[in-house]
Specification:
The chain is α+β, with helices and mostly antiparallel strands and 69 residues long. It contains 4 helices and 3 strands, in the order βααββαα. The protein has helices spanning 7-15, 24-33, 49-54, 59-66, and strands at 4-6, 38-41, 44-48. It starts with a strand and ends with a helix. This is Transposase.
Length: 69
């Protein structure tokens, strides 16, 4: 089951209220390149929070699981 969330919500959940998130453009590029799980619906991009959470929210773990490292 997917939980698609907007990029702004992803920034809030991933980096918190006081964190320094990546800019929306960088997140969209990662979505396009398949580095982040998600999809485009119409003109808007959404992050699949369920898939991202299963990766442990750790960029290194996600790269290793994907086979990129």
């Amino acid at each position: 089951m997917k939980e698609l969330i907007k990029i702004s919500e992803f920034q809030r959940r991933r980096w918190g209220e006081n964190g320094t998130p990546m800019c929306p453009q960088a997140i969209r590029m990662q979505l396009r390149n398949g580095q982040l799980p998600g999809e485009q619906i119409g003109k808007l991009w959404y992050v699949d929070w369920t898939a991202f959470s299963k990766s442990g929210s750790n960029d290194l773990v996600a790269m290793v699981l994907k086979g990129a490292a």
